[in-house]
Amino acid sequence: MVCALLVRPSSATSAEPLVFERDVRPLLKTHCFHCHGEEPEVQGSLDVRLVRWMESGGDSGTAVVKGSAEESLLYQRIRDGEMPPDEGKQLSHDEIAIIRQWIDEGAQTARPEPESIDGPLITEEERSYWAFLPIERIDPPSVEAADRARTPIDSFLLSRLEEQGFSYAEEASRLALLRRASIDLTGLPPTLEEAQQFLADEVPGAYERLVDRLLSSPAYGERWGRHWLDVAGYADSEGYNSADAVRNHAFRYRDYVIRAFNADKPFDQFILEQLAGDELVTSPLNNLTPEDAELLAATGFLRMAPDGTGGAVDDAAVARNEVIAETIKIVSTSLMGMTVGCAQCHDHRYDPIPQADYYALRAVFDPALDWKQWKSPRQRLVSMYTDADREVAAEIEAEARKIDAERKKKQDEYIAATFEREVKKLPEEIQDAAREARETPAKERTADQKKLLKKYPSLNVSAGSLYLYDRKAADKLKAMAAKAKELRETKPKEEFIRALVEPPGASPVSFVFFRGDHEQPHEEVAPRGLTVLDLNVELPSIPAKVEGEETTGRRTALAKRLTDPNHPLTARVIANRIWMHHFGRGLVATPGDFGVLGARPTHPQLLDWLARELIESGWSVKHLHRMIMMSAAYRQSTRGDEALVRADPDNELCGRAPLRRLEAEVVRDATLLLTGTLNRELYGPPVPVMADRVGRWVLGIENLNAGRPGKEIALGGGRSTGEALMLMNSDFVLESSTTASAVQFLIDQQEIFASQITSAGKDDKATPELQALASLCHMLLSSNEFLYVE
């Protein structure tokens, strides 16, 4: 697979000769540069990054003899499997054939080679890769079937279809469109009432109004927030090791994301707040305004990497650096669609991302994620308490302490009175000695005093034993303690934000780690973006320190760079992700990898048009939804032309709507909706998810995995019967309850269940009728019509 992506067909099928930069260098970069060029010590004194250096050769002599592969040591060693030396990393037969052909043809280069290489060399071929080129604003092409083109999107798609003699499938039925749009935008199937309302709306613009209504639904933010949270790696536990510590406050980031999508927050602002929300805060961290608390919650994006540094780890330094590496991976794949993490230990083997670029990007985050001045997850929590909260809490605490003091006074009086009663029960001649022994501090008591108190245990009356002597007094004290506790519980609850905050004045020096080893820092690096992009377009730089700011401002600068209209990657990546969730696959089928090993765009001009449309709409995601969903492409039936299906089985040309299986979350939510038990409440802490004693995963019940009964948390409304589910399902989705087959199925099932019930095992709750209905519901919920979106 790698070979097919990196090399072009042999020139046996093309008169064009092979050249080093385009055909051979990518192979050597992947397999040979690591030992023969990139590292300070060049193995065998042979540097294969330039052809003339290979001609000069190394310790073993000339590596390339132009015109004769058989005489070339480079070819010989590769052919014989001696190089690369690592098992399983040798070149393929096709790759070896390319190197042989290139040498036999004269080992040509595309252009004169540089005199020297000062740092990583990025070739013109690498710069010309599609993902690094500027986003173009392309006019939609003209098409023959202009009547089928509802939006510019259709012009791009129809143009490609018409080139091959095809066109769109017929438009889907209104019911299919309703279900498709509803699930796409809200993750929920339409209710019976919604279906009836839409089907009865014959006024022009009914579909447009449907889309707007769905985009305005609170469920939209949940649905599309979930897509982004998947990209960010959202989790409510650390996920670092088997301890899997709980992230009690991570949900605030999840809630922020949902609110952002529902409000159609401009995506450039969404990116800025997630990368640098703490640098946008204007109120003090110990007195946050609600707006600034929301900005800090946004930085939870940078706290989603697995983090075990709050507990026991084998190597703390390794664990810290792993958190940073995973954070960079999340940022780069989600926003740039590039596997920058592959350059952590050496130059990227496939994409033009030198190792120095990786650590320059890491330098952006080093002030906040300084591995030498590390903060554990608990230390990074930011309190949401304000001065007003502290004042109220202090007032309540003062009142509670008054109760405590009164209780202490009463307790002392009760204990003293009880002691006196017990003393008077003793012989009169030892009563004074007993009082003296009691009043003497325990460490100063004489042996006789200790003996006396041991002989008469009742003299040791205390707060803990008072109830044995005076139950009424003990109950009064208990009531006073409960009153103080109840009063303290009225204090404003102190909540926390799982945030990333850069300390003022922090500016650690960043280094390239030799082979990715934090114990081997080499050259110093300053923060910057990817070099290859700066070679192609003009982008904002990332300064080491923004003047006039308490923090470095590096993450703010990175966000502004990523969302600059000239940036070739960000808008393409986001537009592609939005398209993917409407059509089942992206225009680039690898949404997190736009690099050489990723898929090429099936419709590059359409991708650029969508990216530019996203930018020029003010980064409005809802605008892009409307553009996509109003297109004739989106409204197609899943049943396309048979000839087109044969010619395009993967539907890359979008000549029909994709048949998509629902995700597990959607299946569960749809089932809860149909049973009337879906909890539509937004926001707040997550419900517990735990395994019970037999290994089944259970939602909403705590401590099952500990073998103890736990608190049950309501996840929805009241329970409904299987009959209600069957009626809702059949009336709306399958309409099977009115069919003879469904009726006959119920009759047959009732007879089967009736025959299985014995008088000894009869359960009034599980009648044959109820079991038959449940069986029908199970069948309907397992049907393709329920599990797939047409």
TrEMBL record:
Coiled-coil annotated spans: 393-436
DUF1553 domain ranges (all copies): 554-690
Domain DUF1549, chain residue ranges per copy: 152-367
Protein keywords: Coiled coil
Superkingdom as given in the UniProt entry: Eukaryota
Keyword Coiled coil: yes
InterPro entries in UniProt: Cyt_c-like_dom_sf, Cyt_c_Planctomycete-type, DUF1549, DUF1553
UniProt protein name: DUF1553 domain-containing protein
Species, as recorded: Durusdinium trenchii
